[in-house]
Amino acid sequence: MDMAINQTDFSFIPEREKSIRTKGQQMQAIQCQADSVAGCVSQRACVYCGARVVLNPITDAVHLVHGPIGCASYTWDIRGSLSSGADLYRHSFSTDLREEDIIFGGERKLMRCIDELAERYHPPVMLVYSTCIVGVIGDDLEAVCRLASKRHRIKVIPVQSSGFSGNKSDGYRIACEVLLRMIASQERILYQPFHLNYLGDYNLAGEAWIICGYLQEIGINVNVAFTGDSRCESLLTAPGAALNIVQCAGSMGYLAKRMEEIYGIPFLNVSFLGLEDTMQSLRRIADFFANPYIIKRCEALIERELAQYGPIVKQYRQHLKGKKAAVFVGGGFKAISLIKQFRELGMEVVMVGTQTGRQEEYDAISQLVAEGTVILDDANPSELERFMLEQGADLLVGGVKERPLAYKLGLSFIDHNHERKHPLSGFTGAANFAREVEQTVCSPVWKYLDGPIHTGRINP
Ligand code: SF4
């Protein structure tokens, strides 16, 4: 039997119609921030994964996953946020629930695990993540953590992140609530007028260090980055800052809003992806502090960095002009920045989607892209493959789950997520990005592939 299917036969799910738009063809707003369609594969991660993404970079905390061992595989090893000191966060502790625990309850086992970890590591904070099965059997995490806090005189905080209780965005919000709970325990707030907090950077490949370096150079101190290379103690300094800047609005927008309500700290959404956005963001931060010294230092830094990295980006642009990119990332804000960054490289984004984008972000995306660009929310592999081929993309930017889709189609790929080992933020990151795009898109390897190599769908 010939199992090969024609290239145009990608399945299309009618219930997904409202979540896919082609600019210039449909007038209705895209459907987003909704649960994934039942029976349909989704590129999104679960609630627990969303919470873990945000909280795991706290370097001196114990991260204990209450559930079967499989959930604990989402560890530091597949999300390399870097630390300048403590490395307790690199362990992945699990209660490793088995059948007997599911039948008789897992609270006792959890308490034993907490006791052992507290005695062995003496952490300042222990975060206990709930997983699907714990939500089903109804272990009382709050009560166990309260008891453990008293017994060990440390903060043991439950993260109520059962995977089925929503989608990845809910995990972000739950993590933000945990962070607020940690901060709220600080009684004395020391107000510092030229300090800010940097929200939504997880120090992948040391990116938070680059941005904090820029800010320090222009005369602004960073109390703490949420949560890249953060420590439990440094998080407590957050309420004293004069400003919150937010890089990943999808994961940390909620925390910024809540901190404005509770502590009166205003926030700015910023982006340090690409030359243009980095410049703009630094200027907006300097303008906020309205200090002539800071503004002058900011301009001097921009001039110096542009002189160094601008020509590098320009050089790669010559080879990339006219190429087409597809983008599928976690949040809308990153997608917006990437569209602008590809423009700096002379490339057009022909397909763009996100896991958790919000309506206002999709409106901005729609303003930025050209007619005919496909915009999609919470996509599945089949849709991504279909639109990458139909739109003639030369490159896909995504994360670990999107990489095989691109390679199976014989397309180049850029990891803009957990696994990368070089920074993509700031001026130096813009040059790294341009170099990586050029190296992969212009690699001679693609000319040896005779069309897409998607097994089982297209005749070899
Ligand atoms: S969906 Fe449930 S079982 Fe799967 S990783 Fe998330 S918490 Fe664990």
Automatic annotation (TrEMBL):
KW Transcription (keyword) present: no
Keywords: Nitrogen fixation
UniProt record, GO biological process: protein-containing complex assembly
Residue stretches making up the Nitrogenase/oxidoreductase component domain: 46-441
GO molecular function: nitrogenase activity
Coiled coil: none
Annotated SUPFAM superfamilies: Helical backbone' metal receptor (SSF53807)
Keyword Metal-binding: no
Cleavable signal peptide: none
Pathway per the UniProt entry: Cofactor biosynthesis; Fe-Mo cofactor biosynthesis
Pfam families assigned to the protein according to its UniProt record, in alphabetical order: Oxidored_nitro (PF00148)
Family statement: Belongs to the NifD/NifK/NifE/NifN family.
Protein name (record): Nitrogenase iron-molybdenum cofactor biosynthesis protein NifE
